[in-house]
Design brief:
Blueprint (H helix, E strand, L loop, with lengths): L2 E7 L2 E10 L5 E7 L5 H15 L3 E4 L7 H6 L2 E13 L12 E4 L6 H8 L29 E4 L5 E5 L1 E4 L2 E5 L2 E2 L8 H15 L4 E7 L3 H9 L3 E11 L2
Length: about 240
């Protein structure tokens, strides 16, 4: 974190907040105010301190920390959301857009390529900086044989989808795709590619987490049979 504050009255702590740098959206507000009669006022005080330190920031509207009403009162506006979706494993055929190649992540030895692919999320709100160790093979239990990385026609990483398989459930974060190729259908191709590989490994269900995806992305995922289980709006300061 680059800054942090606590708020208290006498010996009673009402809340705490800190700022975590974001690659393209200033900083993320972490923490918030404890629930209770003073929560709204405490949240506003913490947000005022955060905005004075860094006027470009965003926060998740979590009722037990930073309720949506407090974020709106502080001048922030809804710009996206965190979602968790689940459903039967989609079985549609993979249609890779022309000019792209999708390969198992286990076959990509170049750490710079793996990092570049992971950074395709960087401009999307809700995402933070990726440390180099995060892209090491198998880190965090990631199944590299089922995960997929996409290259464009020049061999430059264009997208990635990392997955975890436990029992019959495939867990994954939404596919990351470079901003200049998001119109191509590569995101959907990556998602269906990992589903195809996971089906052969015994998966029957999917759980997909997304940070800052567009409404069109969510609609596309719902069209695959996934249902929203969790939805937390993301609010950002307006300039």
């Amino acid at each position: 974190m680059t800054a942090a504050w606590t708020l208290q009255t006498g010996q009673e702590v009402l809340g705490a907040a800190g700022l975590r740098p974001s690659p393209a959206h200033g900083a993320e507000v972490l923490g918030g105010a404890f629930t209770g009669p003073a929560q709204h006022a405490a949240a506003l005080a913490l947000l005022a301190a955060a905005l004075a330190d860094h006027p470009r920031l965003y926060a998740y509207a979590e009722p037990h920390l930073l309720p949506a009403g407090s974020l709106e009162a502080a001048g922030l506006r809804k710009v996206g959301a965190y979602t968790r979706m689940s459903g039967p494993l989609p079985s549609l055929p993979v249609d890779v857009p022309e000019g792209f190649r999708i390969v198992p992540l286990s076959g990509v030895a170049s750490l710079p390529d793996r990092l570049a692919a992971q950074q395709t999320y960087s401009d999307m709100i809700g995402h933070t900086f990726v440390p180099p160790e995060f892209v090491l093979p198998g880190v965090g239990g990631c199944d590299d044989t089922l995960s997929r990385l996409a290259h464009d026609s020049a061999g430059v990483p264009a997208g990635i989808c990392r997955v975890w398989l436990e029992g019959g459930k495939l867990s994954l974060t939404t596919p990351g795709v470079r901003s200049d190729v998001r119109h191509t259908g590569l995101r959907r191709a990556l998602l269906l590619s990992v589903c195809e590989a996971a089906r052969s490994a015994g998966a029957a269900r999917i759980e997909l987490e997304a940070w800052g995806d567009t409404e069109d992305d969510r609609a596309e995922d719902q069209a695959l049979g996934l249902e929203i289980e969790a939805f937390t709006p993301i609010y950002a300061s307006v300039h």
